[in-house]
Design a protein that fits this description.
Length: 589
């Protein structure tokens, strides 16, 4: 038997079972992962499953009524959307309503309390030095004097030591260590670059001016003594009306979930001075989850100045509080000036708590303050009715496609139907996995995208089938027709799917909310169409071409040469053999 000619993919022709086995293994693995994750159905959007709707009203700062404008509102929407959506496909909707309201729709299945906290923390972010702190209702930890005690609240949460990595020349940079109590798992702060060692001071150093300012403020001392952070109404008003240049009171929760109260000095660093913040898992020092910060040029100078002052004090006056919406979200300590323009907060963080703090640091400096006007629960009754109508329409459309395939392609239609089923299975399983993985939620437009994909997938089959039938009309038998038709059909299918995917990608980038769900689903199903055609439809047709029912051109196969108007079969003719006496009959030769 002659070997296949060079340039032909003999393995693809002779071993289509490999491709079928590959896609079968992929389906089984994805299905197993779906059941292992416990999420066996796609996550539904707010219009299908219900959820929470929050109305936020913009409140300008005193004397800055002009701050409510389209630019600032759009900035706020962008920040809130990134907070609650993450990758942008969880289908939480954030949009403006009128000139000063923002509506946030959070679908069922999302942690609505956490989302409310994220969108609600809209006041500006400040870094303030800690003057005194104690558990709500407990004895004061420290008076604003040089001899402040280093014991926070009668409890020891453990020492946190900020170790620094070796410098470029191999020498270790100074380490900052101290005992800290209270706030998120006893945070410790360290410099990412090599810090300056010249700012370290003696334990008895005099506090900075900003830290000692409240000492003579008897009204603030009285308010601090009366402050009970265990009461929500009191917490909400703590620090109300305080300007950045004022000392103030604040509340915050420690690692044990207990409320702690603070006297804080004037703001030394503004949230807008933070250029970037990220949650990072530090494997080099064994610190685990940490939060890294990078400051702007102006912020770097401010941060170096305040950390240099705080490093000369004892606990808690060597700490600074990160304050958002009047609440202390972290209070790391320092023992040396951090002059490199970036820093790292370490402590007993887990991934969630580190990411939450990084989000607050990155997006905490909103240009406006927002207050909740209303929080309502949205039912899915209307969406359920629309979903039912959409599914009925999709089922009718699918039934019509199947009827057309059966009537026109007959036996070939079963290959197309099997391919549609494989595509549907992959789409369902992947959507179910994407819910917990990236927060993808299936809404009504996404369902429309899946229905549209039926036509895209069927179109790919039709292109290939028609190419095969064209080859048969030229007089070729089925097996060579299947292989000769594939290269041309493949190019057409790839070009068509590329155009569809490009349209979906552009739509996803330039739109928001529900329309993104449509674009995402359309793009996903377009990619799956290529996978199914290459790994299932083509190999399956190659196998079927070896079966007598199809190879013989049975009238119900959809490949009957007679009904297709095929030319007489192409046959090779041998050229006559010439000899000295003239032409010789090939048979005699």
């Amino acid at each position: 038997m002659a070997a296949p000619k060079k340039g032909r993919n003999a393995s693809a022709q002779s071993k289509p079972g490999r491709s079928l086995a590959l896609i079968l293994i992929a389906i089984v693995a994805l299905t197993g992962g779906m059941y292992a994750s416990g999420h066996t159905t796609p996550r539904l959007g707010i219009d299908l499953a219900g959820g929470t709707s929050i109305t936020l009203r913009a409140v300008p700062e005193a004397g800055q009524e002009n701050a409510i404008n389209k630019t600032n509102m759009d900035t706020a929407v962008s920040i809130m959307e990134r907070r609650v959506n993450g990758l942008g496909v969880s289908e939480a909707e954030v949009q403006t309503q009128g000139d000063r309201n923002i509506i946030v729709n959070i679908p069922k299945g999302t942690n609505s309390k956490q989302a409310r906290d994220q969108v609600g923390t809209t006041a500006k972010l400040y870094f303030r030095p800690v003057v005194a702190t104690e558990l709500a209702g407990g004895a004061a930890e420290a008076s604003p004097s040089p001899s402040a005690s280093s014991s926070a609240s009668g409890k020891d949460d453990g020492d946190e030591k900020a170790t620094s990595s070796p410098s470029a020349d191999g020498s270790a940079t100074p380490s900052a260590s101290a005992t800290t109590q209270g706030r998120p798992a006893s945070d410790a702060l360290k410099a990412s670059p090599t810090p300056s060692g010249s700012a370290s001071g003696t334990p008895g150093a005099t506090p900075s001016a900003s830290s000692s300012a409240p000492a003579g403020d008897s009204d603030l001392q009285k308010q601090y003594a009366a402050l009970d952070c265990t009461k929500p109404a009191v917490r909400a008003k703590a620090g109300d009306g305080a300007k950045p240049e004022d000392s103030t009171l604040a509340c915050g929760q420690n690692a044990q979930g207990q409320w702690q109260k603070y006297i804080l000095g004037p703001a030394e660093v503004d949230g807008t001075d933070v250029d970037d913040a990220q949650a990072v898992f530090n494997t080099q020092t064994g610190a685990g989850w940490t939060v890294t910060m990078k400051f702007t040029d102006k912020g770097s100078k401010k941060f170096a100045s305040i950390t240099g002052k705080l490093a000369q004090n004892q606990s808690p006056q060597n700490q600074f509080a990160i304050v958002l919406d009047g609440e202390v979200v972290s209070d790391p300590y320092v023992s040396q000036a951090l002059t490199g323009g970036s820093a790292e907060i370490s402590g007993n963080f887990n991934q969630e708590s580190a990411q939450n703090l990084a989000n607050m640091l990155s997006y905490g400096a909103l240009p406006l303050t927002f207050r909740e006007d209303s929080v309502t629960t949205v039912t899915a009754a209307l969406g359920g009715e629309q979903l039912e109508a959409g599914l009925i329409a999709g089922a009718i459309g699918l039934a019509l496609v199947v009827i057309y395939l059966l009537a026109y392609y007959r036996g070939l239609s079963f290959i197309a139907i099997a391919s549609l089923l494989v595509s549907a299975a992959l789409t369902y399983v992947i959507m179910s996995l994407l819910g917990p993985a990236i927060g993808f939620a299936l809404n009504l437009p996404a369902v429309c995208g899946a229905i549209v994909a039926i036509g895209i997938t069927a179109d790919s089959f039709i292109v290939y089938f028609e190419r095969v039938r064209d080859e048969i009309r030229e007089g070729r038998t089925l097996r060579p027709a299947v292989e000769r038709a594939w290269p041309r059909a493949r190019r057409t299918i790839l070009v068509s799917d590329f155009v569809s995917f490009l349209a979906a990608a552009v739509l996803f980038v330039v739109t928001v909310g529900k329309v993104q769900g449509f674009a995402f689903t359309l793009g996903l199903t377009t990619v799956l169409d290529v996978v199914v055609v290459f790994l299932f439809t083509k190999p399956l047709l190659t196998l079927m071409a070896r079966r007598h029912f199809f190879a013989s051109g049975h009238k119900w196969s959809g490949l009957d040469p007679k009904s297709l108007g095929a030319k007489p079969p192409l046959r090779r003719t041998r050229r006559p053999v010439h000899s000295a006496a003239g032409p010789v009959d090939p048979k005699e030769a």
